[in-house]
Write a structure and sequence with these properties.
Blueprint lengths: L1 H17 L17 H7 L2 H21 L2 H14 L3 H6 L1 E7 L2 E3 L2 H7 L1 H4 L2 H9 L7 E2 L2 E4 L6 E6 L2 E7 L1
Parallel strand pairs: 1-6
Antiparallel strand pairs: 1-2, 3-4, 4-5, 5-6
């Protein structure tokens, strides 16, 4: 079981680190008759993946400007303060990482129990977060300076919890 956990943690860390590496930028100077769509067709898949990640980040920035980010953070704070598993489960994207383990669906999340999710330390950290000052990063919005924390992000225009550490 420990070996499996370590493999899952290693895979998650590798995925997280993939976006952190520096890439060499190639400047493409189109001929005057080359259209933008033709140039986009020539892009490699890694570039379009990076563009997609940047679009998600832009989506978060827009939500921050509209205070949707703060409102979502306040929903998380309310669910944690009330120790409401159902409400918190409804705010999650699945699969969700909980304490470095992958939880595949809402039922599995509910089976974890309040004692795992609502630790005193986590409840204190989340309650202390000033939702109006949260900043978006490429990883998402991190509620809490270090572990324990809750991370949420925008996927396809929807905000959801991606990790509970």
């Amino acid at each position: 079981m420990k070996k499996r956990k370590m493999i899952v943690i290693t895979v998650i860390m590798m995925i997280a680190c993939m976006g952190c590496g520096a890439k060499e930028v190639e400047i493409i100077r189109p001929a005057e008759d080359t259209s933008v769509s033709e140039l986009q067709e020539e892009n490699d898949p890694a570039e379009s993946e990076a563009e997609e990640k940047n679009e998600n980040y832009s989506d978060l920035e827009e939500k921050g400007e509209n205070s949707e980010t703060a409102a979502f953070a306040e929903k998380i704070q309310a669910a944690v303060a009330d120790r409401n598993m159902e409400a918190l489960a409804d705010l999650c994207f699945y699969p969700v990482a909980v304490n470095s383990e992958v939880v595949e669906n809402k039922d599995a999340f509910m089976d974890l129990g309040e004692e795992v999710i609502f630790t005193e330390e986590r409840c204190s950290v989340i309650a202390a977060v000033d939702a109006s000052t949260l900043e978006e990063t490429m990883a998402g919005v991190i509620m809490g300076d270090a572990a324990p924390n809750i991370i949420f992000k925008s996927v396809d225009g929807e905000l959801g919890i991606a990790g509970i550490n």
